[in-house]
Amino acid sequence: MIYFQTWQDPLRQYQLIDRQLKLIAVNDGASAPFYPGAGLTVSANGTTAGTGIVWGLMGGKALPGILMAFDATDVSKTLWASPSSDGWLYIVHSKPTVADGRVYVPTASHEVVVYANR
């Protein structure tokens, strides 16, 4: 799968079929209203089917950021979004890092916000 999102465009999911990219799914509710679009990261629980997540980091320069999670098999399904009240500021061109069941988000205030399943 190939995941793509750019400024003012919805998250799109493509698959390579017969040497051509075919559009598989679109999430219109996950458009990135700010430049340069979402920083995307993909994670999964090893090779276990159905555990893939596409993480999207969105925001604008000096504006609150939002971390969003989408089903990697069908990005039209939004799984979760961080509340904008979390108060961290987005860094342009940054991407979330996923390790050991946690998602690490760099912020403009020189801190790292950590999201984890409790």
Structural account:
The protein has 118 residues and is mainly β. It has one domain. Helix content is 0%, strand content 44%. It has strands at 2-4, 11-17, 20-27, 39-43, 53-58, 66-71, 78-81, 97-99, 102-106, 112-116. The protein is globular, with a radius of gyration of 14 Å. The termini are far apart.
For the structure shown, list the relevant keywords:
four-stranded antiparallel β-sheet, three-stranded antiparallel β-sheet, globular, mainly beta
Which band does the percent of strand residues land in? Answer: 35-45%
The figure for the number of domains is: 1
Shape: globular
Q: Specify the structural class.
A: mainly beta
If helices are DSSP runs of H or I spanning 4 or more residues, what is the number of helices? 0
Number of strands: 10
Distance between the termini: 29 Å
Query: How many strands, which pairing sense, and closed or not: the largest β-sheet?
Result: 4 strands, antiparallel
Task: State mean pLDDT (0 to 100 scale).
Answer: 87
Topology order in helix (H) and strand (E) letters? EEEEEEEEEE
Sheet with most strands: strand arrangement: 4-5-6-7
Low-pLDDT parts are none
Q: Helical amount among residues, as a percent range?
A: under 10%
- Please give the radius of gyration in angstroms: 14 Å
